[in-house]
Design goal:
binds magnesium ion, D-Maltodextrin-Binding Protein, domain 2, 15 strands, 8-stranded mixed sheet, globular, 8 helices, binds 2,5-anhydro-1,6-di-O-phosphono-D-mannitol
Length: 335
């Protein structure tokens, strides 16, 4: 039973028995994410005040500049999850390889692995636009008490037991699912407590917003070009509105509330698009499906893709169900 104004802590305890495997371990894990989110929120909020904005001078595994706040968020999430000894492994968009946490020790019975994008949309930090943290949780597939392996992380999205995001926006929210719908909690910064503000979040079946980086139009596949033209046509409820923040969590969050579609397609310069299957697309796809929306690579369900590598990229079409299906129709036509 959820009720507005419930704290996230109360909600986790009350809904613990709904979890598929209710040993309390997953609840502790969500609690740890809540804690790390508050710490990162504190740092992100003061970003304009102290000299921590700007590139850290390092390049991550995808060859992109890391911002200092990316580095900080990565450290905070990893530290919080490691110190509390509640997971056996972590993979992060900012780390080359996965991290094993005492998984070979037979006294550690931890079953879960976490995959995170610690600070998504970090190119927006310098201009004070909302950024987010995305997380995805699986049960390991190898036996407890043995070292975690790549196999534990390369699971299809449909195996997720929980996923969510934190949006550091005009207000900070934690939105997550454990496979029983999607609930959103807003942080009261004065007392540092998250309250249930958005129970049972759902994408409207259709919407009027399309979110895509149209600057890349020339490089898009014909199906995506045709869909964009369809969105712009003066017909029925169209033209739609174009809204693109360039911060997946923020674009997704708005579209879930208002109705819309987010697209990051493949292109002639990026054959698999930009977004990472494990850290970005799978968790957002789980949330979308739990909120009556849909997530596709243009042709099939994101969560059915069998991952082959940790930092794999895939094209991403996500949002209101009827809009994603319409975009898929255009993709099919130009196969
Ligand atoms: P990041 O993980 O390096 O921040 O990249 C992911 C972000 C998404 O949040 C956003 O939707 C997209 O990249 C924007 O990319 P582009 O600037 O190419 O449109
Ligand atoms: Mg990212």
């Amino acid at each position: 039973m959820s009720r507005k104004n419930q704290t996230l802590g109360e909600f986790i305890i009350e809904n613990q028995t709904e979890f598929k495997y209710s040993s309390g371990e997953l609840s502790k894990l969500i609690n740890a994410i809540r804690l790390a989110a508050k710490v990162v929120n504190h740092e992100v909020n003061k970003a304009g005040l102290v000299d921590i904005i700007g590139a850290a001078g390092e390049t991550n595994v995808q060859g992109e500049d890391q911002q200092k706040l990316d580095v900080m968020a990565n450290e905070k999430f990893i530290q919080t999850l490691t110190k509390r000894e509640i997971v056996c492994g972590i993979a992060s968009e900012e780390e080359d390889d996965f991290i094993s946490i005492n998984s070979q020790d037979e006294n550690h019975q931890n079953k879960y692995v976490v995959l995170i994008d610690p600070l998504d949309g970090s190119s927006n930090i310098d201009v004070n636009v909302s950024v987010g943290t995305i997380f995805s949780i699986y049960r390991r597939v190898t036996p407890v008490g043995t070292p975690v392996t790549l196999q534990d992380f390369l699971q299809p999205g449909r195996n997720q037991v929980a996923a969510g995001y934190v949006i550091y926006g005009t207000s900070t929210m934690l939105v997550y699912t454990t496979g029983h719908g999607v609930n959103g909690f807003t942080l009261n910064p004065a007392i540092g407590t998250f309250y249930l503000s958005h129970p049972n979040m759902e994408f409207p079946e259709t919407g009027k917003i399309y979110s895509i980086n149209e600057g890349n139009y020339i490089h898009f596949p014909q199906g995506v070009k045709d869909y964009i033209k369809y969105c712009q046509m003066e017909e029925q409820d169209r033209p739609y509105t174009s809204r693109y923040i360039g911060s997946l969590v923020s674009d997704f969050h708005r579209n879930m509330i208002k109705g819309g579609i987010y697209i990051y397609p493949k292109s002639s310069v990026a054959s698999d698009g930009k977004l990472r299957l494990l850290y970005e697309c799978n968790p957002m796809a789980f949330l979308a499906e739990q909120a009556n929306g849909k997530a596709s690579d243009g042709f099939g369900r994101i969560m059915d893709i069998e991952p082959t590598e940790l930092h794999q990229r895939v094209p991403f079409f996500c949002g209101s169900r009827l809009m994603v299906e319409k975009a898929e129709e255009f993709m099919q036509k130009t196969l």
